[in-house]
């Protein structure tokens, strides 16, 4: 698997993703600057956590206009796997690759804590290594992780089984306890919890490893033909 | 030169926890006749444009693409021609 | 702030320097050494450089007594931060700094810029910042003002650290009425680097360029250094203009760019320094001074955010997120190109000279021409005489608590905000980013892995104004010893400290006495525990309307773990483990949390700290941990044995039964030099051989209750009830 980690000015989980994929999972991962204009040759594109461009207007709002975005959209539309984590999830909703929006946590506070999640759909490229209904614990660390979509969109999301992870104890007010969901095609996942922070026993346990191992398997199967 | 004054706020159907906190506090402090609080963002842009209509069109596009998240927010604005001092 | 510039003669008669914290005598000293009357810019620079914050004019004689060097120390006090070797070619860099005054005035920005400033000190050495800790002290949260203050300080620290991507892994939050008007906001940053890459803040080599990097200079925080060195009056609302706004996004770019320069362009770089207190003037003057050179700066080249700034304003602005680099002549473009890549301003504003003079030009005119040494070495040093305060000369009789229901007393202490669960505060900090956090907030100390090695660092901050209020010397020693105990309990060997010395007005003999005496205690303890002071700062004048805080040195300590498998936490691991108490317990209630809770004050005399015994106990615990004999370890501090034992049960579902040969009241005694450890039964013989008489077997882990039988009373409570009391208290108090 060859993964690209997009590095926006203000991203701060890009190095952690590279570490998880390269040093722990043992696959290839490189950082790609937000000024890049092509993502050809990659099996997977990761949009990392952080505060892109300071997140001063709205989380992810300025990243939407980064030069790399055209290539990202093209990559996703061609069926390439895209995983947005935390700020990456916010960015993917801003650019319209995922439905809905992430709002301020109902407590109006940033929350960093271990969060039990229920795997709602194990039948995706991002979650095949888990079992449906399984509970895993991943860290969250965000101020704006409160998932919102209008009622019609939400109904559609549920009907299509797009929700992959739900909070066991909703920490932020997300509708339907949504912690992570895919697009309709199933090749783009956005999630607020950080799987890359839970890949080593010493650091936070290994509950997040399944996300990356699922992707290794999916990319091996050649579901997606390179564009 | 034109000056655009832009207000962005949540759509009425979207829960706004900040407004909720303010409203609850006002009620607690005795200002219980305040029935609605709306929290928003205010922007001022100074721009050049061929005419008023062109300025308005451009500001609307900027709001739609950048300043507001149309999934959850609405916007309104005014555009006024500024007196230019040379 | 200054409309038309006063002439040199007018300055002498109108004395505007008084409002910047300079005395008439200091003005006269400056003019005399200069050999003429200084102009407004020159005397303005003096007010910044001769402030306590920059010149340590009152604290220098005390700081000189600190023990700062052992064979591990690569760089001691005097640079942006100190450096200690940790093996495998790596070094740890750390420093703490106070932002008490700015945080009292504008809590959110004050706390945020405190974090931003200390981070710059770390990467100015060439180290990657890997952890932040914060030590906070507030009044009791029983009023809206304090609750708001706590919320905003926590938000400011969190928003800065979270955005820049450095985990906030630990620290402490204390509550006592002494901090109600003067909160303490001390931030510590820790960095890791290759030993070979240490940078110094120096500007050497005639003709080399001074490169200004980062944010533009505005009129924010002008003369903050002398502001930080002045006492508060609640009437001086005008002080509000002295607070700066932080931009963590800009600083993230600055960290990455500066580290890229130190890594890839080391040959082109002569020195680098943060523009902190007294901004442009202190960074450049100190760089010239350390290298023994002079410099000339053209202020027209300084990137400015506002029009018509005077030299005084430009030089003394404390706008945030700015760095000063000295770059070899001819290689400016190579270094600037790195910053341009990050969209950062990088402008040559002057060059190094060999004449030892500090010259500033604006609009083609010389606006300042003074010897560099006049701003540094020639600053006055005051040798104050301390006078023992009356209350210390005649201490109150010993506090004798009456404990009739030990279970109820325990619950009262668990609910006290000093002991209560702080999760609701620290969960607002990202503690995991960088994915090196092995033990995060909430333990005795945080533990982070050092990438590229098999080692880990344990980090803690500690302060205890209650003890210092009763005896500054013993209290100072206890603060150091307790920090070391926190580290030892995780399995780390303490290797060095940084400090923030938070005290009252040093010109008052009784306040100076506290500073002087506590330094004696700190020096003795650091020597005994082999933890040199490698960096730090002083925050004097923590007074409001003449009322000083309890003397509160904050000790930030770093420990080294050479074997990751020995990392130990305070929580019980299994039922059936044996519980040992190390150290002896006496009736130490003076200055205790129990005394503060029951009488709302502290009084009486402290028992001297036996540093030899402290050393022995710490060695015993560390050896036992290193030999893998210990399943859990916890030091005993606030609230004594009962509180420490209860804390070991939290989140484990494992209770304990212990029996102690002491009166029930002593379950809450705060006798120093004690630990609790649990030992799996199959290690009993090995542990007892190692520990000898220092350890007493007091019971076993297991069951749903915490049972502690004392001579004349008992605690017998469900651990779930105790945990609920501990967890719910602070969120409830802060509502």
From TrEMBL, chain A:
<keyword id="KW-0547">Nucleotide-binding</keyword>
<comment type="subunit">
    <text>Part of the FGAM synthase complex composed of 1 PurL, 1 PurQ and 2 PurS subunits.</text>
</comment>
<keyword id="KW-0658">Purine biosynthesis</keyword>
<dbReference type="InterPro" id="IPR029062">
    <property type="entry name" value="Class_I_gatase-like"/>
</dbReference>
<feature type="active site" description="Nucleophile">
    <location>
        <position position="86"/>
    </location>
</feature>
<protein>
    <recommendedName>
        <fullName>Phosphoribosylformylglycinamidine synthase subunit PurQ</fullName>
        <ecNumber>6.3.5.3</ecNumber>
        <ecNumber>3.5.1.2</ecNumber>
    </recommendedName>
</protein>
<dbReference type="GO" id="GO:0004359">
    <property type="term" value="F:glutaminase activity"/>
</dbReference>
<comment type="function">
    <text>Part of the phosphoribosylformylglycinamidine synthase complex involved in the purines biosynthetic pathway. Catalyzes the ATP-dependent conversion of formylglycinamide ribonucleotide (FGAR) and glutamine to yield formylglycinamidine ribonucleotide (FGAM) and glutamate. The FGAM synthase complex is composed of three subunits. PurQ produces an ammonia molecule by converting glutamine to glutamate. PurL transfers the ammonia molecule to FGAR to form FGAM in an ATP-dependent manner.</text>
</comment>
<comment type="pathway">
    <text>Purine metabolism; IMP biosynthesis via de novo pathway; 5-amino-1-(5-phospho-D-ribosyl)imidazole from N(2)-formyl-N(1)-(5-phospho-D-ribosyl)glycinamide: step 1/2.</text>
</comment>
<keyword id="KW-0067">ATP-binding</keyword>
<dbReference type="GO" id="GO:0004642">
    <property type="term" value="F:phosphoribosylformylglycinamidine synthase activity"/>
</dbReference>
<feature type="active site">
    <location>
        <position position="194"/>
    </location>
</feature>
<dbReference type="Pfam" id="PF13507">
    <property type="entry name" value="GATase_5"/>
</dbReference>
<dbReference type="InterPro" id="IPR010075">
    <property type="entry name" value="PRibForGlyAmidine_synth_PurQ"/>
</dbReference>
<keyword id="KW-0436">Ligase</keyword>
TrEMBL record, chain B:
<protein>
    <recommendedName>
        <fullName>Phosphoribosylformylglycinamidine synthase subunit PurS</fullName>
        <ecNumber>6.3.5.3</ecNumber>
    </recommendedName>
</protein>
<comment type="pathway">
    <text>Purine metabolism; IMP biosynthesis via de novo pathway; 5-amino-1-(5-phospho-D-ribosyl)imidazole from N(2)-formyl-N(1)-(5-phospho-D-ribosyl)glycinamide: step 1/2.</text>
</comment>
<dbReference type="GO" id="GO:0004642">
    <property type="term" value="F:phosphoribosylformylglycinamidine synthase activity"/>
</dbReference>
<dbReference type="Pfam" id="PF02700">
    <property type="entry name" value="PurS"/>
</dbReference>
<keyword id="KW-0067">ATP-binding</keyword>
<keyword id="KW-0436">Ligase</keyword>
<comment type="function">
    <text>Part of the phosphoribosylformylglycinamidine synthase complex involved in the purines biosynthetic pathway. Catalyzes the ATP-dependent conversion of formylglycinamide ribonucleotide (FGAR) and glutamine to yield formylglycinamidine ribonucleotide (FGAM) and glutamate. The FGAM synthase complex is composed of three subunits. PurQ produces an ammonia molecule by converting glutamine to glutamate. PurL transfers the ammonia molecule to FGAR to form FGAM in an ATP-dependent manner.</text>
</comment>
<dbReference type="InterPro" id="IPR003850">
    <property type="entry name" value="PurS"/>
</dbReference>
<dbReference type="InterPro" id="IPR036604">
    <property type="entry name" value="PurS-like_sf"/>
</dbReference>
<keyword id="KW-0547">Nucleotide-binding</keyword>
<comment type="subunit">
    <text>Part of the FGAM synthase complex composed of 1 PurL, 1 PurQ and 2 PurS subunits.</text>
</comment>
<keyword id="KW-0658">Purine biosynthesis</keyword>
<keyword id="KW-0963">Cytoplasm</keyword>
<comment type="similarity">
    <text>Belongs to the PurS family.</text>
</comment>
Automatic annotation (TrEMBL), chain C:
<feature type="binding site">
    <location>
        <position position="56"/>
    </location>
    <ligand>
        <name>ATP</name>
    </ligand>
</feature>
<feature type="binding site">
    <location>
        <position position="121"/>
    </location>
    <ligand>
        <name>Mg(2+) 2</name>
    </ligand>
</feature>
<feature type="binding site">
    <location>
        <position position="536"/>
    </location>
    <ligand>
        <name>ATP</name>
    </ligand>
</feature>
<dbReference type="InterPro" id="IPR036921">
    <property type="entry name" value="PurM-like_N_sf"/>
</dbReference>
<feature type="binding site">
    <location>
        <begin position="98"/>
        <end position="101"/>
    </location>
    <ligand>
        <name>substrate</name>
    </ligand>
</feature>
<feature type="domain" description="PurM-like N-terminal">
    <location>
        <begin position="78"/>
        <end position="193"/>
    </location>
</feature>
<feature type="binding site">
    <location>
        <position position="537"/>
    </location>
    <ligand>
        <name>Mg(2+) 1</name>
    </ligand>
</feature>
<keyword id="KW-0067">ATP-binding</keyword>
<feature type="binding site">
    <location>
        <position position="539"/>
    </location>
    <ligand>
        <name>substrate</name>
    </ligand>
</feature>
<comment type="pathway">
    <text>Purine metabolism; IMP biosynthesis via de novo pathway; 5-amino-1-(5-phospho-D-ribosyl)imidazole from N(2)-formyl-N(1)-(5-phospho-D-ribosyl)glycinamide: step 1/2.</text>
</comment>
<feature type="binding site">
    <location>
        <position position="97"/>
    </location>
    <ligand>
        <name>Mg(2+) 1</name>
    </ligand>
</feature>
<keyword id="KW-0460">Magnesium</keyword>
<keyword id="KW-0436">Ligase</keyword>
<keyword id="KW-0547">Nucleotide-binding</keyword>
<keyword id="KW-0658">Purine biosynthesis</keyword>
């Amino acid at each position: 698997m060859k993964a690209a980690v997009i590095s926006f000015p203000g991203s701060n989980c890009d190095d952690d993703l590279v570490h998880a994929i390269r040093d722990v999972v043992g696959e290839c991962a490189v950082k790609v600057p937000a000024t890049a204009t092509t993502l050809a040759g990659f099996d997977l594109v990761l949009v990392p956590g952080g505060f892109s461009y300071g997140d001063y207007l709205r989380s992810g709002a300025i990243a939407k206009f980064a030069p790399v975005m055209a290539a990202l959209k093209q990559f996703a539309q061609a069926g390439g796997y895209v995983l947005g984590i935390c700020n990456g999830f916010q960015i993917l909703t801003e650019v319209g690759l995922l439905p809905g929006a992430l709002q301020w946590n109902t407590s109006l506070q940033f929350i960093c804590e271990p969060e039990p999640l229920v795997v709602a759909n194990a039948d995706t490229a991002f979650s095949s290594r888990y079992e449906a209904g399984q509970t895993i614990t991943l860290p969250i660390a965000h101020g704006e992780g409160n998932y919102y979509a209008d009622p019609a969109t939400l109904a559609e999301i549920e009907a299509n089984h797009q929700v992959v992870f739900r909070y066991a104890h909703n920490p932020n007010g997300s509708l339907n306890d949504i912690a992570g969901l895919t697009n309709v095609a199933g090749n783009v996942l956005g999630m607020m919890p950080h799987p890359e922070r839970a890949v080593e026993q010493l650091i936070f346990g290994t509950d997040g490893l399944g996300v990356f191992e699922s992707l290794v398997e999916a990319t091996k199967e050649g579901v997606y033909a390179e564009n | 030169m034109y000056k655009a004054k832009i207000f962005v706020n949540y759509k009425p159907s979207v829960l706004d926890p900040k407004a909720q906190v303010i409203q609850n506090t006002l009620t607690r402090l005795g200002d219980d006749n305040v029935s609605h609080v709306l929290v928003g963002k205010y922007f001022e842009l100074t721009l050049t444009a061929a005419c008023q209509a062109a300025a308005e069109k451009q500001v609307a596009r900027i709001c739609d693409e950048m300043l507001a998240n149309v999934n959850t927010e609405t916007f309104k604005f005014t555009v006024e021609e500024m007196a230019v001092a040379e | 702030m200054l409309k038309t510039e006063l002439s040199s003669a007018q300055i002498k008669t109108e004395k505007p320097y008084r409002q910047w914290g300079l005395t008439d005598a200091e003005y006269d000293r400056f003019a005399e050494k200069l050999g003429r009357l200084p102009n407004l810019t020159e005397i303005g620079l003096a007010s910044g450089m001769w402030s306590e914050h920059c010149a340590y004019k009152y604290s220098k004689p005390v700081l000189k007594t600190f023990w700062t060097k052992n064979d591990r120390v690569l760089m001691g006090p005097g640079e942006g931060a100190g450096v200690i070797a940790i093996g495998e070619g790596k070094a740890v860099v750390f420093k703490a700094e106070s932002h008490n005054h700015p945080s009292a005035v504008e809590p959110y920005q004050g706390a945020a810029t405190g974090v931003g400033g200390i981070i710059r000190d770390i990467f100015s050495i060439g180290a990657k910042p890997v952890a932040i800790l914060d030590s906070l002290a507030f009044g009791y949260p029983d009023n809206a003002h304090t609750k708001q203050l706590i919320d905003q300080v926590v938000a400011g620290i969190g928003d800065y650290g979270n955005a820049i991507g450095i985990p906030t892994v630990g620290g402490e939050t204390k509550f006592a009425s002494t901090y109600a008007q003067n909160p303490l906001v001390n931030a510590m940053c820790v960095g890791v680097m290759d030993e070979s890459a240490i940078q110094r803040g120096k500007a050497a080599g005639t003709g080399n360029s001074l490169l200004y990097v980062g944010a533009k200079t505005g009129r924010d925080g002008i003369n903050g250094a002398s502001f930080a060195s002045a006492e508060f009056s609640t009437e001086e609302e005008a002080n509000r203009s002295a607070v700066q706004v932080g931009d963590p996004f800009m600083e993230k770019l600055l960290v990455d760019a500066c580290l890229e320069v130190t890594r890839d362009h080391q040959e082109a770089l002569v020195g680098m320094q943060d523009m902190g207190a007294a901004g442009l003037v202190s960074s450049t003057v100190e760089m010239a001074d350390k290298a023994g050179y002079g410099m000339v700066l053209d202020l027209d080249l300084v990137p400015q955010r506002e029009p018509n700034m005077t030299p005084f304003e430009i030089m003394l602005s404390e706008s945030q997120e700015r760095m000063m680099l000295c770059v070899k002549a001819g290689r400016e473009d190579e270094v600037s190109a790195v910053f341009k890549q990050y969209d950062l301003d990088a402008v040559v504003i002057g060059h190094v000279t060999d004449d030892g003079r500090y010259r500033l030009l604006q609009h083609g005119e010389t606006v300042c021409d003074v010897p560099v040494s006049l701003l540094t070495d020639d600053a006055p040093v005051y040798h104050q005489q301390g006078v023992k305060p009356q209350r210390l000369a005649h201490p109150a009789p010993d506090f004798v608590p009456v404990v009739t229901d030990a279970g109820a007393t325990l619950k009262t202490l668990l609910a006290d905000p000093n002991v209560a669960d702080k999760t609701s505060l620290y969960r607002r900090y990202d503690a995991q980013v960088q994915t090196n956090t092995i033990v995060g907030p909430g333990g005795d100390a945080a533990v982070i892995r050092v990438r590229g090695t098999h080692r880990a660092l344990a980090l803690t901050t500690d302060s205890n104004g209650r003890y210092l209020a009763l005896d500054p010397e013993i209290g100072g020693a206890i603060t150091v010893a307790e920090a070391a105990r926190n580290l030892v309990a995780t399995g780390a060997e303490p290797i060095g400290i940084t400090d923030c010395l938070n005290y009252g007005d040093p010109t008052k003999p009784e306040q100076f006495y506290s500073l002087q005496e506590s330094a004696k205690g700190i020096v003795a303890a650091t020597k005994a525990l082999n933890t040199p002071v490698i960096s730090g700062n002083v925050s004097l004048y923590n007074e409001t309307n003449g009322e000083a805080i309890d003397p509160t040195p904050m000790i930030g300590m770093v420990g080294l773990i050479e074997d990751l498998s020995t990392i130990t936490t305070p929580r019980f691991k299994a039922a059936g483990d044996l519980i040992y108490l190390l150290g002896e317990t006496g009736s130490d209630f003076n200055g205790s949390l129990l005394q503060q809770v029951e009488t709302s004050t502290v009084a009486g005399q402290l028992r001297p700290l036996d540093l030899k015994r402290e050393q022995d106990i710490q060695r015993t615990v560390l050896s036992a941990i290193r030999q893998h004999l210990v399943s859990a370890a916890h030091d005993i501090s606030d609230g004594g044995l009962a509180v420490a034992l209860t804390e070991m049960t939290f989140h484990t579902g494992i209770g304990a039964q212990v029996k102690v040969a002491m009166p029930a009241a002593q379950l809450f005694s705060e006798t120093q030099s004690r630990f609790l450890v649990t030992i799996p039964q199959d290690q009993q013989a090995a542990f007892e051989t190692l520990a000898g008489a220092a350890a007493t077997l007091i019971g076993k882990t297991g069951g749903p209750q915490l049972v502690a039988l004392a001579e004349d009373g008992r605690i017998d409570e469900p651990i779930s009830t105790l945990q609920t009391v501990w967890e719910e208290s602070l969120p409830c108090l802060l509502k």
